[in-house]
């Protein structure tokens, strides 16, 4: 076999796609423009750099669709999920990651693979020949974005994504803050104390909302609109939707008891999650923001415990680009007008590290299978990966297509189970049991077909 698979973009999706294809015996070249060509969000030249949160979200593979996606990727020898577990940080039931060692591990393993080479260059066109996967993510370069629009004849859609601040732990006043996961969730003491909590009484909360609404914020460029993804709203936008919105979102006080004042229920709570293995940095959970830097420090230091906070990184906002996948891609993630080109990751309209890596895993396998001499059918929509790819390549309404996290609402219902909140636990367990069986069956089937295929 002499054909090479070219993968453009070395983020979560591109890294996973390269790993999967290389493991199947295909020669792969990763084209990554960093560090020669940087972005405002990336800080290093490592592959799979985490630029926003350090969380892969829930690791519960029985009651959570994201956790199920973790399980499917582990079953498929996923590089990203395995590396995440190698550098796991305490985070209750979530899979939080020490971001720098994680990216270094992914980079080292890809560089060491005998079937993978890395070319540090910018690809700014859609090639006419060869086998290509474009996994350039939400920060696709302007030149490549223009090439995609010119080829597809459709305007790329865009939304705005915001980055949460990171605080130096030593600058937090622990006489006011305390360590506790919500509802003491976790199997170990470390997990049960994975989050740092800063309480607010009603008066402080109301003053905080006033300051948030009045703060100086980033302006949009001419022609841009604030089409935010609802799963990653800036806190100012949430506050604009109602003064109580934050109390029922990232600042909800439920499941927490302040040991400094155990008899007083906090009106609101700001949570921070450990951001590195040393425990020297903490990420402000759900505090994506478009406030200007000066306003951020002023407003966030109103939070009890953060009066003297020092910020390792302040929040920011950037434009994310994604294509209208239901219109442009077939069910094997190929560009309908150019079948030699596939897309993977957030540019396809999935949202989140986990979902991006999962689409990379799937596309890497599909592209490699084609080069080996057979096609892989998409996984069943009863699986988490299958539900996602079904949604973005045809299940979603093209006219209103928006980025989507994996969730059980994308799964076909299980017959005979009652709906509503009371039946939810049994229903979710049925979804995950069915998905695991179907995913294993799909993996074994594709592995058998691969072994029988000519090379």
UniProtKB/TrEMBL annotation:
<comment type="function">
    <text>Catalyzes the folate-dependent formation of 5-methyl-uridine at position 54 (M-5-U54) in all tRNAs.</text>
</comment>
<dbReference type="GO" id="GO:0002098">
    <property type="term" value="P:tRNA wobble uridine modification"/>
</dbReference>
<dbReference type="InterPro" id="IPR036188">
    <property type="entry name" value="FAD/NAD-bd_sf"/>
</dbReference>
<keyword id="KW-0963">Cytoplasm</keyword>
<dbReference type="GO" id="GO:0050660">
    <property type="term" value="F:flavin adenine dinucleotide binding"/>
</dbReference>
<keyword id="KW-0520">NAD</keyword>
<comment type="similarity">
    <text>Belongs to the MnmG family. TrmFO subfamily.</text>
</comment>
<keyword id="KW-0808">Transferase</keyword>
<keyword id="KW-0489">Methyltransferase</keyword>
<feature type="domain" description="MnmG N-terminal">
    <location>
        <begin position="5"/>
        <end position="371"/>
    </location>
</feature>
<keyword id="KW-0285">Flavoprotein</keyword>
<keyword id="KW-0521">NADP</keyword>
<keyword id="KW-0274">FAD</keyword>
<dbReference type="Pfam" id="PF01134">
    <property type="entry name" value="GIDA"/>
</dbReference>
<dbReference type="GO" id="GO:0005829">
    <property type="term" value="C:cytosol"/>
</dbReference>
<dbReference type="GO" id="GO:0030488">
    <property type="term" value="P:tRNA methylation"/>
</dbReference>
<protein>
    <recommendedName>
        <fullName>Methylenetetrahydrofolate--tRNA-(uracil-5-)-methyltransferase TrmFO</fullName>
        <ecNumber>2.1.1.74</ecNumber>
    </recommendedName>
</protein>
<dbReference type="InterPro" id="IPR040131">
    <property type="entry name" value="MnmG_N"/>
</dbReference>
<keyword id="KW-0819">tRNA processing</keyword>
<dbReference type="GO" id="GO:0047151">
    <property type="term" value="F:tRNA (uracil(54)-C5)-methyltransferase activity, 5,10-methylenetetrahydrofolate-dependent"/>
</dbReference>
<feature type="binding site">
    <location>
        <begin position="9"/>
        <end position="14"/>
    </location>
    <ligand>
        <name>FAD</name>
    </ligand>
</feature>
<dbReference type="InterPro" id="IPR002218">
    <property type="entry name" value="MnmG-rel"/>
</dbReference>
<dbReference type="InterPro" id="IPR004417">
    <property type="entry name" value="TrmFO"/>
</dbReference>
């Amino acid at each position: 076999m002499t054909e090479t698979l070219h993968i453009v973009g070395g983020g979560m999706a591109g890294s996973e796609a390269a790993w999967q294809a290389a493991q199947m015996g295909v020669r792969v070249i990763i084209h990554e423009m960093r560090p020669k060509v940087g972005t405002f969000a990336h800080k290093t030249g490592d592959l799979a750099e985490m630029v926003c949160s350090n969380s892969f979200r829930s690791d519960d593979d029985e009651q959570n669709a994201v956790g199920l996606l973790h399980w499917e990727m582990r079953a498929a020898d996923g590089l990203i999920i395995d590396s995440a577990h190698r550098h796991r940080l305490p985070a209750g039931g979530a899979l939080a990651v020490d971001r720098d060692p994680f990216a270094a591990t992914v980079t080292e393993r890809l560089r060491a693979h005998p079937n993978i080479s890395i070319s540090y260059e910018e690809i700014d066109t859609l090639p006419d020949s060869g086998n290509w996967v474009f996994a350039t993510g939400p920060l696709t370069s302007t030149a490549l974005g223009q090439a995609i629009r010119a080829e597809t004849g459709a305007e790329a859609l865009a939304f705005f994504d915001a980055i949460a601040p990171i605080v130096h732990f030593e600058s937090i006043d622990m006489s006011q803050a305390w360590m506790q996961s919500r509802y003491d969730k976790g199997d170990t003491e470390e997990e049960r104390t994975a989050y740092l909590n800063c309480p607010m009484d009603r008066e402080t909360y109301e003053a905080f909302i006033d300051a948030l609404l009045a703060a100086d914020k980033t302006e949009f460029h001419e022609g841009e609109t604030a089409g935010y993804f609802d799963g990653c709203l800036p806190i100012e936008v949430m506050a604009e939707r109602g003064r109580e919105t934050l109390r029922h979102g990232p600042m909800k006080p439920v499941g927490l008891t302040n040991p400094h004042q155990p008899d007083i229920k906090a009106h609101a709570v700001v949570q921070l999650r450990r951001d590195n293995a040393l425990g020297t940095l903490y990420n402000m959970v759900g505090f994506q923001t478009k406030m200007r830097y000066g306003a951020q420090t002023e407003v966030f230091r109103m939070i009890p415990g953060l009066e003297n906070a020092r910020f390792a990184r302040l929040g920011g906002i950037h434009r994310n680009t994604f294509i209208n996948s239901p219109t442009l891609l077939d069910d094997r993630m190929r560009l309908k007008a150019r079948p030699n080109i596939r897309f993977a990751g957030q540019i396809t309209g999935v949202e989140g590290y986990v979902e991006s890596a999962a689409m990379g895993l799937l596309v890497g396998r599909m592209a490699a299978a084609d080069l080996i001499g057979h096609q892989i059918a998409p996984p069943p929509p009863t699986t988490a990966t299958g539900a996602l790819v079904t949604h973005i390549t045809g299940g979603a309404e093209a006219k209103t297509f928006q980025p989507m996290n994996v969730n059980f609402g994308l799964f076909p219902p299980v017959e005979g189970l009652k709906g509503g909140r009371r039946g939810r636990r049994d229903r979710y367990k049925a979804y995950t049991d069915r998905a695991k069986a179907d995913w294993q069956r799909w993996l074994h089937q594709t592995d058998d077909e691969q072994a029988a295929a000519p090379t």
